[in-house]
Amino acid sequence: MNPFILIIGAGPAGIGMGILFKQLGIKNFGILERDRIGSSFMQWPKEMRFITPSFTGQGFGALDLNAVSPTTSPAFTLRKERLSGEDYALYLDLLAEHYDLPIREEVNVTSVEKRGDRFVLKTNEGDYEADAVIWATGEFQFPNVRPFPGAEHALHNRYIDSWRKLEKGHYVVIGGYESGMDAAVNLVAYGNEVTVISAQERNGKKEADPSLSLAPYTWERLRIAERTKRLTVIEKTKVEKIYKDNNGYTLFLSNGKQMLTQPQPILATGFRSGAEQIRSLFEWGENGKPKLTVHDESTITPNLFLIGPSVAHDQAIFCFIYKFRQRFAVVAKQLVDRFRLSHDEEIFTHYANNQMYLTDLSCCEVKCEC
């Protein structure tokens, strides 16, 4: 049997998975990308930077946090520590070329259907068939634009090209996690006044896991913004509704107060899972993430796997590249065993030695004594 495997998405998850297949010696696979390689990163606001720094630590047990394969480092390739979206898209493009990955760009998958043991994927250029599908579409292309009534009147940060282009004013940013604070510090840097409405309390319970707290890079920039006296943060408060009329935008808050703002409010309420495109093929948890087996496979659709930032197991959240890259080998190992694919077993050892093969999820608890 020579099964065909399709990876959907050519971002860090899809590219990383493709590189692993190449290194294993698996040839019968393809990658479909509806836009261009790394297109989500090309759509970041110009000012946005990775909150995870890049540094070439290979050889000393410290893989570059933003690398998607053990022998590459965006810090080495680009000679940069704080990567922009354009930087990272270039890194992914270089990897695709270097490893000669079988990618077809501008192929938009519109539906996926399981027919017997095979998948049929309908696209803008016809049907594709596969024995296994690995969904790697990420989240950035799927902003959470309707978290409450009237949210359509706000502008989601995903649609910002550059914060510099916005007219000067007093902006309200809805959401106090990474994207909200990134919006706030950039708006302040361009001379605006900003009020952030955050459901969380910044200095409340300290969480060591960066998936649950602001990154040090964000804290550093916040302190600079706060010194300008142009940043206000309203904590432990939610926006329940937005009403728009000729006077501007009225925000109804959970504390019973109302706030009128003239510039369009900025919505920084995060993103939804790209797996929602094929929602019926997954079971879904209360956290809005697909339910997965220990091999990151759909619990209801055999041979459908998920990789990337939407992967979650109980308290283990894999939303960062340095986290979700550790699950590529888990999926690959399941596929080579299931389909009895000829492969180089030493590659799995190589990935394990470089902290890119995580099977024991009990070790994912993040604790810091100081």
Automatic annotation (TrEMBL):
Coiled coil: none
Pfam families assigned: Pyr_redox_3 (PF13738)
GO molecular function: oxidoreductase activity
Record keywords: Oxidoreductase
InterPro entries given in the database record: Auxin_biosynth/cation_transpt, FAD/NAD-bd_sf
Statement: the UniProt record of this protein carries the keyword tRNA processing: no
Domain of life: Bacteria
Name of the protein this chain belongs to: NAD(P)-binding domain-containing protein
Gene source species: Anoxybacteroides rupiense
